[in-house]
Amino acid sequence: MTKTNTSSSLARVSELLQVISPEPRLEILLAIGTGEACVCHLEAILGYRQAYISQQLMALREAGLLDSRRDGKYNFYRLAKTGIFELLQNAAQIAEANLIKREPAMHKKQCACPHCAPAFSNSILVEPTH
Amino acid sequence: MTKTNTSSSLARVSELLQVISPEPRLEILLAIGTGEACVCHLEAILGYRQAYISQQLMALREAGLLDSRRDGKYNFYRLAKTGIFELLQNAAQIAEANLIKREPAMHKKQCACPHCAPAFSNSILVEPTH
DNA sequence: ACATTATATTCGGAATTAGGAATATGATAT
DNA sequence: ATATCATATTCCTAATTCCGAATATAATGT
After folding, report:
1. Mutate to test the interface with A, among B21, B89, B94, B108 (most CBs of A within 10 A)
2. Residue (of A116, A102, A114) closest to A45 by Cα position
3. CATH number of residue A110's parent domain
């Protein structure tokens, strides 16, 4: 007895598609890729204001698409489900668009976070100034 | 030199996802399945008003997702791209929903269209009353 | 304690969208 | 020509979403 179309299943699919579809959210998902990214990072890469990025991340997180991990000042976001890339690939194909990258995002523009400036972060080489 | 993320590619993917995401449109896409359906049909199956169905069909058609074929009074709609079902399957999986059928939709509720009442439509058995 | 940096949240008005009512169009039948 | 049925379209407003500004919180440094 396989489950058939229930309104709640439809609603969940609808919600998923709605929540990822705004262009800035697609940009964020692609920027995160298979890696992780902090807010300042996405701010630097994508050029949106911090509060705006944060809002979009919240929406994606509440939808269960992103997980976050705090590391000191930084809050790193990553995809909660891998299937998202297949979905985007599929959508791109239908839309006749080639746009999907799934690398962990080597960042051209930089912020001060550990990922952008690894030499200066969490490093045992940097001694406390006590 | 493979094409990279252009804003227009992103925009197309965004538009695609947006246009299919409303629940009534998902219902319509699933109801059409791999077959075709006229408006009165979808009206009967889904219970939305005619004008509303028509509006949603227009939106999907303008987005290039549906083709239509006129047959007398009836206007039959079918999916313009097959990939749509893979997309929906994918979305359902991520949303932890099982809902996708891709049969040509055997209709429980009926309207007077050739597909619902095949015995009375276009049939050589029904002679004109001249 | 105070400053600074990273991030989150709240508020509100502008812009957009949803969807109902009414009506128009197009095909067929009489 | 008129009626009827299937479908499309226009109009309008309530509801929603977008996104900026301002502010709050949380961690770290000095």
Report:
1. B94
2. A116
3. 1.10.10.10
